[in-house]
Design brief:
The structure is a homodimer.
Chain A lengths: L21 E6 L11 E16 L7 H9 L4 E11 L5 H19 L6 E8 L6 H13 L5 H7 L8 E9 L2 E10 L12 E6 L5 H14 L4 E2 L9 E6 L16 H21 L7 E9 L2 H12 L2 H8 L5 H10 L10 E4 L2 E5 L2 E2 L5 H9 L2 E7 L5 E8 L3 H9 L3
Parallel strand pairs in A: 3-4, 7-9, 8-15, 10-14
Antiparallel strand pairs in A: 1-2, 2-3, 2-9, 5-6, 6-7, 10-15, 11-12, 11-14, 12-13
Helix pairs in contact in A: 2-3, 5-6, 7-9
């Protein structure tokens, strides 16, 4: 089967600058019987700092375990991404494949294996074939540098468009750039809605600060999106900073440009996260859920996720139905502090329920018009405190069922 | 739209005995523009004990709050069930409707309003019209006693079949009967997948013991089913015991017949719960998920629910796809203790993964045959401890999307 480009996809691929110290190459490892590049090899200059956030799944892939062990060392020389095989749930053989990849790259670059970061996405339960990985790597070593669009395309599985974003920021008088590529949320093979994202910057940043900034950004971006509530065994976000921009290194929050860098990274992560939702399986609406008035930000986040993951809310939006009763239900089931008689709900700019009561005779025309658009906003005010959160999701359509049930793996 | 009878429905309605001291009647309150009975009035003999379990939603209906206040008193004289309007999220006006119903019945039966239990199911956010409720009650007071099937039909909203079950048990030398009727999981109007269940027995049972037995049964039955993970604002199970069977009252676990009564009630609850799953929106498969080897029963329960609520697992079963990778994902995301390399998974009787590895060359024929049937069993062994749990759910199909998104409310 082929899946049409998501109706929520942006018009085109953005213009992205080269990042000094970052050299992407792609090759055909032929992990599946397809004729496309499926191995991405990104060489990173010596001195590159690294940070990452990884899936909390209790059944992670060996790649996730490898990255978790390597991240505390803070340095990176290469990234390898395999598409078409997630290598998850493959026991010692899966681990051996990751070690073989790291060893081959370490030999090529004359670096430590722990400087090589590896991610894989695709079918679960099939050990990544080491011979194909090694042949693919050798081809990549010899390949010319590729474009960001080629790299973004090569990490895709059943994504319907290449996803990338860029941010520029001045740090200590130097212009630095951040480029991110990401894949996720398209799936027909028997694997997860895997999300893999990679961010590259030429900034000089201490790994500890990079990690803090990335963790902080993650909480407000990737951790705030959901397509179907199903957490992958392979979710990985890695950020690499080559330090070639010439800025005085950012070592902590007091360094010149630290705040600017942190916000640029957070902004980049949010835009990358939105792209994943816009390629959500079967998505026809991009939904923003704003919760305020909760007892804490954490409580607001859990309530927002309860709404975003509710099949009844998601199908109502797919049906362009201002079904605020389902929002009430999702607030009620979240298990967080809520009082029915203080709860207010809006669709777009129109309040439909205030203080636990439907707004009688509210104007349905702007609500209907808002729901017909491709971007839908739902606002919930709990009326209890000052906690707030925003979560992004997509609707639940026949397309999701078609992708995940109609076609056998 | 009309929804076809669920393919998982039992062949017919069971033969149910009358329960001494229980007199059901139905009438047309016309809560919606339909020509069908939508108000159920069940008169209960003086001395009837009552117990109940109610939704944990933080935004419950006024009916749920009314029942929660009345249950500690332990006595009941009547049950009123309104179909077509859930009366949830309606503020003081909704509360006034419940009070008016209780007052009218109390006047008719010369009892306390707190002896009148009220449940409503249907559209949310519209106060139950008091005039229609009162006229409906007056019609019900004058109506002849009806059959259990009529009562089971009258509490339905978009259920596709009437749901009831019976159990008989000997308590202290007397044969006692338990009859349950239940509705839930069919929905096209803008309301929740509301579950309402009512159990009637002629046993003499102390309210405290009845409550303990019902709470216990609930944990292993209604709390172990899920259609879409969306918890209603109105979920209610009430059990009424008229004491007319002539048994020596069961006052605690040491009373004669206490164990027999408790298991009969638990068995009845499980069968009623299964009927709700079998009428799950769009369901084409009845799925049993057995988790064992967890660190505790509670942990096993949460893992089983994580599997049962996973859209990717549910769509895989709909597609008759032995996609055990999605089961691994759902175990991994549950946040409970799990070790990838001890995890084993079976479909039906066939092990497909053992100790964190796919069983190479397992016989796919029996797995495929099992998945083609209407009843699918998934077994997960975590290999950690002795905790176990069973959860029942249904698959996620185009029918679910059609019911909840294609038709506007």
């Amino acid at each position: 089967m082929s899946i049409a480009r998501s109706p929520l996809a942006p018009e085109g691929f953005p213009d992205l600058p080269a990042i000094a110290g970052v050299t992407p190459r792609v090759a055909r490892a032929r992990y599946k019987t397809w004729d496309r590049c499926d191995l991405t090899f990104v060489e990173l200059a010596p001195g590159t700092a690294v940070a990452g956030v990884l899936t909390k799944s209790r059944c992670p892939s060996p790649e996730v375990e490898w990255c978790r062990d390597a991240l505390p060392l803070g340095t990176a020389r290469a990234l390898v991404v395999n598409a078409g095989n997630s290598n998850a749930f493959t026991g010692n053989r899966g681990r051996a494949a990751v070690e073989a990849i790291a060893a081959r790259v370490a030999g090529h670059l004359d670096c430590q294996p722990s400087d090589v970061f590896v991610s894989s996405t695709g079918v679960i339960g099939v050990p990544l074939p080491i011979d194909k990985a090694e042949a693919g790597l050798d081809a990549a070593f010899a390949a010319p540098e590729c474009s960001w669009q080629d790299a973004a395309a090569t990490i895709m599985t059943t994504d319907t468009f290449e996803k990338a974003a860029v941010a520029n920021v001045v740090v200590g008088g130097k212009i630095i750039s951040l480029v991110g590529i990401i894949k996720g949320s398209g799936m027909i093979a028997p694997d997860m809605a895997t999300m893999l994202g990679f961010i590259f910057t030429d900034a000089a940043v201490d790994p500890a600060f990079l990690q803090a900034a990335l963790s902080d950004a993650n909480v407000r971006s990737f951790s705030c999106i959901t397509v179907d509530g199903d957490t992958s065994t392979s979710d990985t976000i890695l950020a690499f900073a080559t330090g070639q921009a010439g800025n005085a290194p950012i070592v902590d929050g007091n360094s010149p440009g630290a705040d600017a860098f942190r916000s640029a990274l957070a902004d980049l992560c949010t835009r990358l996260a939105h792209l994943v939702v816009r390629d959500g399986e079967g998505a026809s609406k991009f939904i923003t859920i704003d919760v305020e008035g909760a007892e804490s930000d954490e409580s607001a986040h859990r309530i927002a996720l309860s709404i975003a993951n509710s099949p009844l809310v998601k199908t109502a939006i797919a049906g362009e139905d201002a079904n605020w009763g389902r929002v009430v239900m999702a607030v009620g089931k979240a298990g967080e502090p809520a009082e029915r008689d203080r709860l207010s709900i809006r669709f777009g700019e129109t309040q439909v329920a205030v203080n636990g009561l439907a707004v009688e005779g509210y104007d349905e025309a702007p609500v209907a018009a808002h729901l017909k658009g491709s971007d839908v906003d739902i606002g919930v005010d709990l009326g209890l405190g000052s906690g707030r959160a925003t979560v992004w999701t997509c609707d639940l359509t026949h397309g999701y069922i078609a992708i995940n049930a109609d076609y056998r793996s």
